[in-house]
Amino acid sequence: MSVFMYPLDNEKRRVISLDGIWKFKFDTQGVGRNENWKDGLTDTIEMVVPSSYNDIFTEAAKRDFCGDVWYQTDFYIPSEFEALDTLIRFGSATHRATVFVNGVELVSHEGGFTPFGGNLNDVAKFGQKNTVVVVVNNELSKVTIPVGSVKTHDNGVKECTPAFDFFNYAGIHSSVRLVAVPKTRVNDITVVTGFEGTTGTVEYTIESALNAGQEIRVSLLNAEGEVVATADGQQGSLTVENVILWQPRKGYLYDLVATIVEGEELVDIYTLPVGVRTVKVEGTKFLINNEPFYFKGFGHHIDAHTIGRGHSDIMNLRDLECLDWIHANSLRTSHYPYPEEFMQLADRRGLVIIDEVSHVGAWNMTDVSQAGMGGSNAVPVKHFDREDVQTEGMVNHKDAITKLIARDKNHPCVVMWSLSNEPDSSQESSEAYFKEIFAFARDGLDAQDRPMTMVNFMLAAYGNCKASQFADVVCLNRYYGWYVTNGADLPNAGDQFAKELAGWATEGKPVIITEFGADTVSGFHALPSTMFTEEYYNEYLDQNFAAFDSCDAVVGEHCWNMHDFNTGQGIIRVNGNKKGAFTRDRQPKMAAHHLRARWGVVKDFNQK
Ligand code: BDP
């Protein structure tokens, strides 16, 4: 089964959760791989799966640990599973992992945000106790996705130096499950939806190796569970009369039920939620269901006190409630694929998603970092001039894109792929790099052919960006009134921003402001305002709103960030990044009320 298919428990499939408390061990000396810790860990402590391990402890050395950590638990596979294929499936482990079952290596995976797993049939004992050991590593390099580096201190302790500001949380971040599926099964499904007037279509392709006498039957059920269309075969088209479209904030979903039958006998069944909608860029408009859509919302982080980047349905739901309250209609999964369960909620709620691959921080690996986050990561060779970046880095980047699209291709909430956040696209050598990345991503990975973008960094301002020419939509992270024209010059920030936007508008593409925000410590007040106060954030927002409204090509505004989030330590981070409209515990700052007042008026469609 494609590991990207979300695990389902149904008539023919079984899911057993392995979440909970696992045994855990820091490999402080880096000896575990040679000393065969894969056969079983000794002297362990406890760890929660899923979670980041970093903020569970009280010691800095554990929070900031760089290297291998080891996990172990026992599990049983019921004997009746012998007739099935049983996978052990990890939703994600950051940034890479190797899984051993009963001492045998089962699977290794690179990339911290996408699922992986391996078939247990040959290595596991049915009806008996099995042991799984997992080694997870959080190190970063110039060719990993995301990028970063590792320093080794004089005492031999390694330090991860990410090239991005969000905290480099690590661990088993999503659920671990045993997934038992029939030997003949639906391996994968791909859907493409459309509509003409009131008639909707769902084209589907099902990957499956059928035996003689077996056939595929597909039906589409509406939200009431009534069959509205049927089809047979591995590929086909379902027609839905009086279709109810998936709309922003009204996430109507049908269920596509794919079955394999042999005569009257059911062999396998898989149910995929499907939203019927179209997405298209036309001139400077971003069309959802042929209507010009206006993005209102945030760049976000999966980030919470104590659980770090671990998946939490509680935090996801709270975030969605806050987004509804503030009248947001969209979100960017900055700066990595989000938990599958988050994407499912977004489908159901009608939250529009710009889905981002974890290529972030590539600007910060060059000498330009002196101008940015403290300058501590500077290396003399510019990122895209490095041969290893153009070769190995490119391979890893493509791999991350492939996995993101394979996992999220059927989600109606996803309307655009973001292939990178803030690379230094002012470099000549970034042009060839992104030409190849965009060509690769557009070459059949997404049957829905969604728009593709990359998120532009302010040092590659209008006229200076070598990569945005390949994007369908210009996405800009801009900090006029914060990093550029700061406090003293705030009254001019809007005009300066508007000037740059007028330049971008001549490209004839839609423009989305994917980041704008000012660090604000909740509860800081000043009259007249000063930077970091709540008053300043509101004035900063007004300057930005004026710039957006001055430019017809602007079709969206995503404030950075939805909430305060944890970062590495640095001289421009006050116990984390404080640009949240909400605090880290998801309570509104004054800025949230200000955004809410505007977004309650700005329409989802036909704004400009
Ligand atoms: C941008 C990055 C984002 C940072 C933000 C900031 O895309 O990840 O958190 O700036 O500095 O450079 O707040």
From TrEMBL:
The keyword Hydrolase applies. GO terms for molecular function: beta-glucuronidase activity. Residues 279-603 form the Glycoside hydrolase family 2 catalytic domain. It comes from the Bacteria. Keywords: Glycosidase, Hydrolase. Residues 17-182 form the Glycosyl hydrolases family 2 sugar binding domain. Its EC number is 3.2.1.31. Residues 184-277 form the Glycoside hydrolase family 2 immunoglobulin-like beta-sandwich domain. It is an enzyme of class 3 (hydrolase). Belongs to the glycosyl hydrolase 2 family. NCBIfam families: PRK10150.1. This is Beta-glucuronidase. It comes from Enterovibrio gelatinilyticus. The lineage of its organism: Bacteria, Pseudomonadati, Pseudomonadota, Gammaproteobacteria, Vibrionales. The gene is uidA.
